[in-house]
Amino acid sequence: MFETLKARPADGILALMQMFKDDPRDNKIDLGVGVYKDATGLTPIMRAVKAAEHTLWETQDSKVYTGLAGDPAFSDAMVALVLGSAVPRDAVASVATPGGTGAVRQAFELIRMARPDARVFVSDPTWPNHVSILNYLGMEVVRYRYFDSETRGVDFDGMMADLKTARAGDVILLHGCCHNPTGANLNLTEWQAVVETLLETGAVPMIDIAYQGFGDGLEEDAAGTRLVASSVPECLIAASCSKNFGIYRERTGILMAVSANKGARKLHQDTLAFLNRQNYSFPPDHGARLVTMILTDESLRADWQAELEDVRLSMLTLRQHLADELQQLSGSDRFGFLAQHRGMFSLLGTTPDRVQALREQNGIYMVGDSRMNIAGLNAQTVPILARAIVDVGV
Ligand code: PMP
């Protein structure tokens, strides 16, 4: 049986990680993999997470199964974190999932179950796993214009023209904040225009929010998601706790189905629980429990927010530093977009051969589409990167 299996193309980012490891140069710089790193290159465990783990170790007296939807307290805490008071609590059905990826996967399966002929519109570019999972599930993918390769901002006119071609029951996948891989995001006026198009077409929004708190702040980063959720009859939200709680390997995420039809909440909740049951039964609990403890304890929450704010500001400082260096070296403002982008990533918007030249000549590793992880930089490496970018002629 196994002889029929086919080799799959290597995952670009994982292959890049290996190349970086194998590179003997001391001064190499890793801007590839999508994890936050502090100035020393470490991905630390957040203080509040450590404290919650300590308390959990002391107080947890059983590891018996939770519910199929995970602990309801996790849902309550996460619905409040993502949606605030945008929609009534009883408009939201939700399940804990293994990471944001689990939430994305379950959302796609729900869509396929409810509307087998739905097309899923994704930004061009988007997180590659969106397309990969949709292909794997045999779902139709339509790409909408998103990144303007001249300005390195959002091609909003192109995006709107493409979204208008959606039909009722199609799904429009949006990044809640800190777009991966581009770093270019919608402002609230643009979100409002997207809402109007959703209402005109009858397409259903699905929002993937994996970096809340990494952009403009916890509340600000959720503003687009909240606007959509409060304006349309139905939407799906996949949220990840991997980045903003720094608990990548704990696999903590949540899928929410928001519906103005409150009478249908039980059906939605039962369907989400059914999907969990089919795929992995009970979702992982450890990370979800830490998140719940942090969000519901005043002092843990304050400490988490303070540390998250430090993380956010450190990335903004690096962005500004890099934009300033490039401004000085190139004598032009064309790299100003780096300070405008938000989140961990920026798409430099350059060619694969320049990305290769940066790697081979300078030991600077970024993803082939020229996505850089800003958190891979520090005050010493910013000028080195700026010099290299100018030298290779970006
Ligand atoms: N969505 C987007 C846009 C992401 O960038 C990521 C993380 N790379 C995820 C979802 C999923 O993250 P995780 O499964 O690690 O929680």
TrEMBL record:
Question: Species name for this entry?
Answer: Roseobacter denitrificans (strain ATCC 33942 / OCh 114)
What this protein is called in its record is Aromatic amino acid aminotransferase
Name the family: Belongs to the class-I pyridoxal-phosphate-dependent aminotransferase family.
User: Which top class of enzyme applies to this chain?
Assistant: transferase
Q: Keyword set for this entry?
A: Aminotransferase, Pyridoxal phosphate, Transferase
Provide one Gene Ontology cellular component.
cytosol
Which stretches make up the Aminotransferase class I/classII large domain?
27-389
BP term (GO), one: L-phenylalanine biosynthetic process from chorismate via phenylpyruvate
Q: What is its EC number?
A: 2.6.1.57
A single Gene Ontology MF term assigned here is: pyridoxal phosphate binding
Q: Which CDD domains match?
A: AAT_like
Quaternary data = Homodimer.
| Cofactor(s) essential for the protein | pyridoxal 5'-phosphate
Q: Identify one Pfam family in the record.
A: Aminotran_1_2
